[in-house]
Amino acid sequence: MERQKGKVHRQSFLHGALILVMAIVIEKIIGAIYKIPLSWVITSLGYGYFQNAYSVYSPMFSIATAGFPIAISRMVSENYFRGRYRDIRQIHKASIRIFLVLGVVSLTLMLLLSQPYTRFVLRGNAQEALPAIYAIAPAVFFASMMSIYRGYYEGLRNMTPTAISEIIEAVCKLLFGLTAAVLIVNSGLKEFAESGTVYGIKEANETYAKIATLPYAAAGAIFGVTLGGFFGFLFLFFYHKKNGDGITPEMLHDSPRPMPMHLTMSRLIRTAIPIAIGSLAINLSAFVDGMLLQGRIGDLLKTNAATLLGMYSSVIPPEYASPDKIASFLYGCFGNAYNLFMLVPAITQAFGVSALPSVTEAWTSGNTVHIRRSMESVLRIVTLITIPSGIGLSVFAMPIASLIYSKSDQGPVIIGKILIILGLASIFAATSTPVDSMLQAVGRVDLPVKLVVVGLAIKIITNYTLVGIPEINVLGAGTGTLLCYLITTVLALYFLFRVTKIRLNYFSIFLKPLLASCVSIGIAWLIYRAAIVFISAKIAVCFAMILAVLLYAVCVLWFRILNKHDISMLPKGQKIVKILENHNWIR
């Protein structure tokens, strides 16, 4: 970390957010190189096994990592503002003890819960999902170890270590995970070609031979996540050893005596528990999808199989149409659509992480102007991303699904239908994370927890009801996700404004990006529809999406959505402000 006149050089909200966004963009590009070819290799059926492992992993990941990094970031930021540098060091020591325990507990729980979960959700198909769950289980321990350093540096407003460790995770996942999946499928098919068996079991033909390799190929693919966590932790450990935290001996000498260790740990735990419960509830969303979606589809196959299979007779490959495969296949389709849905929240999560210390310091200072300016900047930048991204995903859902998941055994038609709903849901899911971070920053760590519990209850009721209707089935899970995030985001915004008593420029923050999105995406869609008459649909959708981005950038400048404060937080922001002011493109 750089030093300036004996103090830590700290990144502004937008500077720190941009570092994380760049890391996320790189991570998502690597992730696309990983997941899209992976879906070709293991098909939607194998991806169902892959997603089942993530469904168990996500709640355990929350227990091990959620809450405490945010609590650490908030406490470090607050103590830095007050000049209590010895307390900052003590927070770091306390976090090491806590995360070691959490990592071991979460790993143990995941191993113990894997068999009951798969038996309940997959019934007669349970054993096929277990290899992937066992392969990802150690990742929860390494994720816990990484959180020791991520929350600490984020509180110091240094987002670089988090960003680099995330890229390392993505690269390892790609290199090790995709390679393992390909090698496992190829070795199984090679054995079949030589002896007619796969892992010693006789198979009827090559199609069924490949199906037999998928549980192990999914495990090999997901083991890349475990290795990514291991190498990400190693990077953070050695980064801290080499660079420290930038707090100088002079700063420590002038700092007051720290609180006793037991009080530091007590406050850390009390701050973290509500946040962790809220994050656990969010991650239980994927668990609910995995459990209810597959379970309810299994019920439909017993009570109304003709209607369900009739809907998909032309899009589900015959070899996947058996009762023990179709639930995993449809869940795999949902998982592929969910991957695209999660692109938007992943980007805005960076703004939430960066906003927390910024808004915390503004709130601690009690400066109303500073608080309002910080909140407006966060929300304006977030809506500039979430609204066009979500609308674009929804409008272009079918072309995007056909572009990425073109093979019949990936179910592109089913993925596209789900993505229409999840595209809209991504707007609210992506907005909720920064809003929750701001609520936590102003001391209301309990509100996100309560709201998420409400949203999760709505999701469970909606999923159970709609997925159980034969004509809706898997689309019900997408609808449950949309309602969950819509309600929790609207309520979170209401309580944020109520707690802070801050009045914002709603037209500039919400309506201008919506107008710019509708204009740019609407024009792009019309051009796409005209273009597919003359050129390939895949080329046309790529051209249309690029055009939509360019048109949106023009609309943002034309409608003067950004202001000087937003731009000035960028690296070399003052120079950019002067250029934009000359053209009257900012307020």
Describe this structure in words.
This protein has helices spanning 13-65, 68-82, 85-122, 130-136, 139-155, 160-195, 206-243, 249-253, 261-303, 305-311, 323-341, 343-365, 368-395, 397-404, 412-441, 446-467, 475-500, 506-531, 537-558, 564-568, 573-582; strands spanning 3-4, 7-8, 197-198, 201-202. With 587 residues, it is mainly α. The strands form 2 sheets. A two-stranded antiparallel sheet has the order 1-2. A two-stranded antiparallel ribbon has the order 3-4. Strand 1 and strand 2 (7-8) form a beta hairpin.
Outline:
The protein has 587 residues and is mainly α. 81% of the residues lie in helices and 1% in strands.
How widely separated are the two ends? 34 Å
Helix content: over 70%
Structural class label: mainly alpha
Radius of gyration: 24 Å
* Strand runs, count: 4
Number of domains: 2
Report the sheet-strand fraction: under 5%
Choose one word for the global shape.
globular
- Written as H for each helix and E for each strand, in order along the chain, the element string is EEHHHHHHEEHHHHHHHHHHHHHHH
Poorly predicted parts = 1-7
Mean pLDDT value: 82
Tell me the number of helical segments per DSSP (H or I, 4 or more residues long): 21
Strand order within the widest beta sheet: 1-2
**Largest pleated sheet:** 2 strands, antiparallel
